[in-house]
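Internal ticket #5521
Category: modeling
Description: The requester needs a full-assembly model to guide mutagenesis choices. All entity lines are attached below as received. Residue total reported by intake: 573.
Assigned to: D.W.
Attached entities:
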Amino acid sequence: MYIQNVSKTYRQKEVVQEVNLKLSEHKLTAFIGPNGAGKSTLLSMMSRLLEKDCGDIYISGNEITTFKSKELAKKLAILKQSNQIDLVLTVRELVSFGRFPYSQGRLTEEDHRLIEEALHYLGLDNLADRQINELSGGQLQRVYIAMILAQDTDYILLDEPLNNLDMSYAAQLMKVLRRLVDEKGKTVVIVLHDINFASSYADEIVAMKAGQVVYHDITEQVIQKPVLDELYEMNIQVCELAGKRFCLYFNE
Amino acid sequence: MKQKMKSRVFLLGTLFFVAVAIMLIYLTYHTYGNWEFALALRGKKILGFIIVGVAISFSTITFQTVTHSHFLTPNILGIDALYLLIQTILFYSFGQVMYQLYPYKLLVFAVNVLIMVIMSTSLISFLLKKGGHNLFLLLMIGMILGSFLTSLSTFFQVLMDPNEFDKLQGALFASFSKVEVDLLAVSGLLLILGVSYLFRMSAHLDVLHLGQDHGINLGINVPVFQKKLLIVVSVLVAISTALVGPVTFLGFIVSNVTYSFMKEYQHKYLFIGSSLISLILLVGGQFMVEHVFHWNTTISVMIEFVGGIYFIWKTYQKGSQ
Ligand SMILES: Nc1ncnc2c1ncn2[C@@H]1O[C@H](COP(=O)(O)OP(=O)(O)O)[C@@H](O)[C@H]1O
Ligand SMILES: [Mg+2]
């Protein structure tokens, strides 16, 4: 996935400034950076939810706006930060929407198999027949992620999917994403606000600040005190535990 | 899944049965021995009810899915206000000749529908392009335009000869009792075109219900789809308005009764269910008007009355949630 000279301006404020980026295929890439850095905006443009002011974004050699909507939906899936719906639906029915690009509402055997697989991946087997308006925020978040999984795309873009999840489900989701990359060769791009999750699970990290990409490197190169201090403008301790780097940031 | 399908079939089957029963009762009750006459007269009315009921149901449910609101109805696009103005101007310039001769009637109908569709289509296309696909801007402008057109109609009406005005009033009021029989064939054809498009798109509408972002993610070209839907909606509203005049609250009643009765998200079932419900309400209402109130009221007055109360109740319910 290539991003070339992409910008977005809201009322004279350039929230994404001429970003150039080449995201590695079959890798888990985490976007980090302070609030308002432009991560969500960039992700929305990468997934054609938002029109870019200028620049090009290519996946498998083609600019995203040249794809037919339906074809792109089979290659790339996006889950945004906030999702509310007010519908009478069961968990399984919502997850089934993930198969829409393939079946246009008429589910085949293969569709049903992938739906059950996605439910299982997110530990939703027991909730499958529950109404979605009876679920907690975290449960609903997992249902949406299962829907994205059922979409079975090469590229999966997730904007802060760990919000609403407790630690155990957050870690579990990161492991699921890891498996998708390692076993199925998917390309996962995820915005994370907890740098420790990025440090533990990501292959590469893109750090954004004030609309620009300030670092893009393999995880070990970005999770370093000088880099993080400058990015977040605070004093962050980086320590190593059981071969992994952790960041401590609450005590100044 | 199977359980759900069973209950759907049961619900729709019940509605279908009730609708057919009400229609049969309406057709055969108290014919004063004059069978053929009653059947022909009432049969035509029922055809009118079917066309209006189906048009209103499909258009309102589609419109509410597009706007993500169960309170809005397509009237907000200003289509009926436009109809009022066209009628007023025609009456003002040509008098009531137009309404008496059959070929003129058809012509007036065609002109009405055409103007309504062209105006609303260009408004929709223009605003969705200019406003960066901002649906709510479109709705607001539709509303403002609606009141502007209504004022313009009032202006012409004030200029009119009082006798003419009286006749215009008669022609303008939604009148289910004198459905324009000559226009049934044309409107039936248009209805089938619009309705079959919406029905084919029902799975797409289900996806649109999840919201704009999910719609795009799942491969729907949302702006283009929205535009197509709004155009079909305006065609359907135009048909129904040209046939019986503006009915403000019918769509609101029918759609909301359907949602709470069916507890359903799939548009193909919502469409069928709401069409049957509107038929039950319209034919049942007309039956009451004819045999209980002995023509002392009209069905449009009943719809406005009941609909108004229902609207207030729904708003109150929503507010106290
Ligand atoms: N629709 C919008 N209109 C105006 N400003 C916006 C809009 N969306 C985002 N912004 C602004 O763009 C900047 C980047 O936002 P965002 O991409 O959401 O940042 P992040 O996800 O990194 O926290 C913020 O300053 C935000 O206020
Ligand atoms: Mg964000």
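Resolution: model delivered.
Comment from assignee: The interface with chain B takes residues 47-49, 69-74, 77-80, 83, 85, 87-89, 92-93, 97-98, 100-101, 104-106, 148, 151 of chain A (CB under 8 Å).
Ticket closed.
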